[in-house]
Amino acid sequence: MAVSPPVCDFGWKAPDFTLPATDGRRLSLQDIRGPKGTLVMFICNHCPYVLAVLDRIIRDARDLAALGIGVAAICSNDAEAYPEDSFENMKRMAEERGFPFPYLHDEDQSVARAYGAACTPDFFGFDADLGLQYRGRLDASRREAGPSDLRRDLYEAMKQVAETGRGPAEQIPSMGCSIKWKAA
User: Fold this and answer.
1) Can you tell me the distance from the alpha carbon of 78 to that of 106, in angstroms, rounded to the nearest whole number?
2) Which of 39, 79, 106, 168 lies 20 to 30 Å (CA to CA) from residue 87?
């Protein structure tokens, strides 16, 4: 079932974290922070919404890094119930797809809970001071990638953040699969 996150809570401060990355490092929010802003994405390996736009996520991450935006992706899904989202499979996907950003494992799901992540993909775009400025969609794609000429909502919003420190007032929420929470 498709899930959409709430609208942007402008200025909300990014919770800190330190998580293992697929490249063997442990990275904190400060390690990924960019001079013009930071994008934290909650994605996973198996979600059809993520897979439909993964090439666009990679493209936008590269383009945003060139603007001074730090980028990282986090997988918080329950890997016991969803083995495709295991840390080993995360490593494989990051290497095979050539992720230009760290792919971090939130095994205990504490970071997803701290951020209020609702779905995959879920995008949190912060300004240089780590205040939330964007909580919207990548583009108008859904379970299938839309036409290649779709407006790049995430890229345009984060470009605006890099240039002005503020995100757009109008934002359309992302949509995707729910975070796969562990049983209580």
Assistant:
1) 9
2) 39
Position 1 pLDDT exceeds 70: no
What would the pLDDT profile of 57-114 be if each residue is shown by its tens digit?
Answer: 999 999 999 999 999 999 999 999 999 999 999 999 999 999 999 999 999 999 999 9
Task: Give kind and range of the element (H or E) at residue 123.
Answer: strand 122-126
β-sheet with 176-178: strand ranges across: 2-3, 176-178, 119-120
Task: Say if residues 45 and 54 touch (Cβ distance below 8 Å).
Answer: no
* In the chain, alpha helices (H): 29-32, 48-65, 87-97, 110-115, 153-164
pTM attached to this predicted model: 0.96
pLDDT in tens, 21-64: 999 999 999 999 999 999 999 999 999 999 999 999 999 999 99
CB within 8 Å of 177: residues ≥ 6 apart: 2, 3, 44, 47, 48, 49, 50, 119, 120
